[in-house]
């Protein structure tokens, strides 16, 4: 004798179905079953680091938002991955240049980073410990070289931060998409050169220190 059916019984949720992987939704036509971190990072770059959404990135690469949350935890986790990837693209210092050539190479690398990563100028402003982030990872070799040439860590940090902040401000003049160097408007490139020349000329006479004092209890 067959068992009675229960048409009103609720169906089990997708999370209770052991056949469905936790990282992706059930198969649908045209939807890939997997994605790489680079897929998600590239989609976030295209959308802009300051304004991308997990839902928008998921739509770009053809997966569910749940798959991204499974991989990165939350939007900040994906943003952290984007920032790590961005700084990993920075080229190290070439040769053993003097102070001013070191800072010029530093400025070129910051500008290239800004062009590749739309929205970074907003993210940096709101990122934890931005004054430390400016000289981390591969940018650290530039500060090391300045210290080898007689500057204190605070002086090197100040000089580098002034240049980086200037490059980030100039990025506001460009579209909120990745920009190739050859597509930068002439007036923006001219202003960049003028800004760097002014900063370097100013540093010929004085090397201020950047030291953030701890708040008194």
UniProtKB/TrEMBL annotation:
Record-annotated DNA-binding residue ranges: 53-72
PROSITE patterns: HTH_TETR_2
Gene Ontology MF: a single term: DNA binding
HTH tetR-type domain mapped to chain residues: 30-90
Record keywords: DNA-binding
Oxidoreductase recorded as keyword: no
InterPro entries: Homeodomain-like_sf, HTH_TetR
Keyword ATP-binding listed: no
Region (Disordered): 1-36
Domain of life from the UniProt record: Bacteria
UniProt xrefs under Pfam families: TetR_N
The name this protein goes by in its record: Transcriptional regulator, TetR family
Species of origin: Corynebacterium variabile
Upper taxonomic lineage: Bacteria, Bacillati, Actinomycetota, Actinomycetes, Mycobacteriales
């Amino acid at each position: 004798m067959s068992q009675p059916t229960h048409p009103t019984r609720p169906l089990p949720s997708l999370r209770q179905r052991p056949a469905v992987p936790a990282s992706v939704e059930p198969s649908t036509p045209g939807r890939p079953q997997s994605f790489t971190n680079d897929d998600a990072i590239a989609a976030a770059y295209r959308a802009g680091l300051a304004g991308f959404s997990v839902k928008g990135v998921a739509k770009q690469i053809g997966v569910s938002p749940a798959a991204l949350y499974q991989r990165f935890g939350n939007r900040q986790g994906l943003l952290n991955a984007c920032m790590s990837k961005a700084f990993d693209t920075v080229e190290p210092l070439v040769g053993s240049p003097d102070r001013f050539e070191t800072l010029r190479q530093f400025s070129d690398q910051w500008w290239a980073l800004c062009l590749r990563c739309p929205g970074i100028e907003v993210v940096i402003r709101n990122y934890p410990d931005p004054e430390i982030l400016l000289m981390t990872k591969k940018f650290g070799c530039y500060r090391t070289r300045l210290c080898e040439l007689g500057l204190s860590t605070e002086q090197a940090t100040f000089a580098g931060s002034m240049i980086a902040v200037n490059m980030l401000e100039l990025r506001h003049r460009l579209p909120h998409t990745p920009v190739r160097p050859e597509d930068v408007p002439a007036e923006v490139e001219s202003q960049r050169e003028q800004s760097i020349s002014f900063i370097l000329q100013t540093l010929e006479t004085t090397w201020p220190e950047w030291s953030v004092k701890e708040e008194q209890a």
